[in-house]
């Protein structure tokens, strides 16, 4: 079973950078899946045919602070995926399983960093996400303390010198 973990988001728009940031953090520490930081690119820019399972990391207007959802074509969830039209992708790739690891945003506006609220949600979500990925044979070799450190290094302010 081939798995892709795809981070989606615009890091210039505050919490919208959640998916892109998390993908960057886990990319070099994940076994059993290809991790792709899609940034603001279109989901159709990757070869989805190579994968059986696609796990999207993105923000979503959900009632809870975070969650993991299986997405089906008839889904009632309101996932933006940046005007791509997730229903179109799901229709094109009906033989694939899609999941969204979602974080509820606190601020989506011109802001070159994730909000503290989003970071706290990411930290709470990470162990759940890590365990979820293990169901597909994917191992993420990071702990919550690593996430806290790496998000501060890689995602707090993209304009600061590192």
From TrEMBL:
InterPro entries: Pept_HybD-like_dom_sf, Peptidase_A31
Biological processes annotated in GO: protein processing
Superkingdom field: Archaea
Gene Ontology molecular functions: aspartic-type endopeptidase activity; enzyme activator activity
Keyword Repeat assigned: no
Keywords: Aspartyl protease, Hydrolase, Protease
PANTHER family linked to this entry: HYDROGENASE 1 MATURATION PROTEASE, HYDROGENASE 2 MATURATION PROTEASE
Protein name: Hydrogenase maturation protease
Species whose genome carries this gene: Sulfurisphaera javensis
């Amino acid at each position: 079973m081939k798995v892709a973990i795809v981070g989606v988001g615009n890091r210039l728009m505050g919490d919208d950078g959640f998916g892109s940031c998390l993908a960057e953090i886990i990319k070099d520490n994940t076994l059993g899946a290809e991790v792709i930081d899609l940034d603001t690119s279109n989901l159709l820019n990757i070869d989805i045919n190579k994968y059986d399972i696609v796990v999207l990391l993105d923000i979503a207007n959900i009632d809870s602070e975070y969650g993991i959802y299986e997405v089906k074509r008839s889904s009632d969830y309101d996932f933006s995926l940046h005007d791509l039209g997730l229903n179109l992708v799901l229709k094109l790739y009906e033989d694939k399983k899609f999941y969204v690891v979602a974080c509820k945003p606190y601020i989506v506006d011109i802001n070159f960093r994730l909000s503290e609220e989003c970071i706290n949600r990411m930290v709470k979500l990470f162990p759940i996400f890590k365990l979820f990925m293990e169901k597909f044979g994917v191992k993420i070799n990071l702990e919550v303390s690593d996430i806290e450190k790496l998000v501060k290094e890689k995602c707090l302010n993209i304009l600061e010198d590192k």
